[in-house]
Amino acid sequence: MTGISETRGTPAADPLRTRLAAACAAAATVGAGLGLRAVAAGDVAKYGGDALYTVLLLTLVVALAPRASPPAAAGSALAVSWAVEFLQLSPVPADLSRRSAVARLVLGSTFNPPDLLWYAVGAVAGWGVHTALRAGRAGGDPGPRPGPGPRPG
Questions:
Q1: Domain range holding 72?
Q2: Is 9 domain-assigned?
Q3: Is residue 125 part of a domain?
Q4: Phi/psi class of residue 9: alpha, beta or left (left: φ > 0; alpha: ψ in -120 to 50)?
Q5: What InterPro entries does the record point to (predicted)?
Q6: CB neighbours (10 Å) of residue 125?
Q7: For residue 59, which of 87, 31, 119, 18 has the smallest C-alpha distance?
Q8: Structure pTM?
Q9: Alpha carbon of 107 to those of 96, 147, 150, 152: distances in Å?
Q10: pLDDT, tens digit, for every residue of 74-117?
Q11: Which sign, positive or negative, has the C-alpha torsion 9, 13, 14, 20?
């Protein structure tokens, strides 16, 4: 058997298709974040945005590494989210945020411990969606299923 036929039907068999889907998911996530800010205020907008930030990072991880497993993609996105949040303990993000709206959106400006929880919520949500989508793609051709096994006599 060739490597191509062995991977046909597996969740990450087509990296280009996975990258395209991840790019579309990233655009949808940005849209959801902007929409959330347009219709909600206060904690809903803030913490929902935190969760969506990590979901966006997860989609970017998958776009860059289409064969990444859901736990690896979610863990990477969460690690970057937390690293950015902890970077806010230094003056660098606040200074950059004063100079650039893009920096403010990407880096934030002020450390806020509850953000860490909401990044984890986003990672778990993204992990779940990523897992479901991979299972759905793999579910098209499940292959032979084992029988019930020997029956006691």
A1: 14-138
A2: no
A3: yes
A4: left
A5: DUF2809
A6: 16
A7: 18
A8: 0.80
A9: 8, 54, 59, 63
A10: 999 999 999 999 999 999 999 999 999 999 989 998 999 999 99
A11: positive
Residue written as tokens 């996105």? 77
Query: Domain total for the chain?
Result: 1
The Cα–Cα gap between 132 and 38 comes to 29
Q: Does residue 151 form part of some domain?
A: no
Q: What is the DSSP string of 28-56?
A: HHHHHHHHHHHH--HHHHHHHHHHHHHHH
Residue with tokens 């579309």: 24
The token pair at 70 is 């859901």
Distance in angstroms (rounded) separating the CA atoms of residues 121 and 42: 18
Token pair for residue 98?
């004063």
Structure tokens at 123: 């990672």
User: Per the domain annotation, does 108 fall within a domain?
Assistant: yes
